[in-house]
Amino acid sequence: MFAGTIAEQDRVTTIGHDSRWVWGPWITRWGISNRTSNRMGEPMLKIGMEAPDFESADETGRPFRLSRDGGSRGTIICFYPGDFTPICTREICRLDALRLELADRGWVLVGVSPDPGARHELFKQRYGLSLRLLCDEKRLLFCLYGCLLPVIQWPLRVSWVVDTNRRIEARVHAEFRIRHHEKLLERLLGN
After folding, report:
1. List of residues 6+ apart from 7 with CB closer than 8 A
2. Rounded to two decimals, what is the model's pTM?
3. Over the chain, what is the mean pLDDT?
4. In CA terms, which of 26, 68, 153, 170 is 20 to 30 Å from 190?
5. In the chain, what are the domains?
């Protein structure tokens, strides 16, 4: 099983199915500390900021690392609340349809949700998806990028465009209007 670790020297968060570590000055051995300085409930990262580097397992258990596995132009990270929900299914199917075109232009597209790998596998099979879906069962990536609704810790629907230097070029946060997420990718394609 892919276990979680952290290398604070190069600010890499490794998130797996058994992760007990988080990135930042509030690192505790057993998870996110309850100090007010942690990322729980903090605002989302802003355009121009450096995106936190991370490593997370995909649906097959293979690790994906932002700094290593991104495309020649960058990475598009799409956070969504869950597999098999009506809006998420439409969003991921539409974004997956643009994946090959994006790959031809040097972009890598990944999806992130709190679902386990087995559920991602079933989701991909049922809808014939080809993009990598990263598992974030403990919602640590959602915390890193500020994509959790405060208090109830509900995952938000946010798409990020991160360049090869890990700078955030663009961000779309739209819970119900998935067309905004599509438009972001279409702008990258020049359509």
Report:
1. 14
2. 0.75
3. 78
4. 68
5. 6-189 (3.40.30.10)
